[in-house]
Amino acid sequence: MKDRITTNNEGEDICKRCSIEVSYSERFDSYYCARCNIWLEEKCVDPLCDCCKVRPLRPIKKTKPKLKKKHKEPIEWDTKK
User: Model confidence over 1-15: pLDDT tens digits?
Assistant: First the structure.
């Protein structure tokens, strides 16, 4: 994870992988890239650190899209022969 952050011409911190501005998570005290969905800093080595010990693998939890229920008319069986 080393060297995942660089600086652009305007002095902003950007992701080296995709070149967008990095985001910061106050809850986990770490920088991440929202487009790549990766942490840009490693966890600290302190086993008692409240931020790092609960930090998820990815900074943004991707939700599964909900399936839309298709409105279908009930099947009418032809019983007449």
Answer: 558 999 999 999 999
3-state secondary structure of 53: coil
User: Is residue 80 situated within a structural domain?
Assistant: no
Decide: 41 and 25 in contact? Cβ < 8 Å.
no
Its pTM stands at: 0.71
Q: Is residue 22 part of a domain?
A: yes
Give residue-wise pLDDT tens across range 58-78: 999 887 777 666 666 666 666
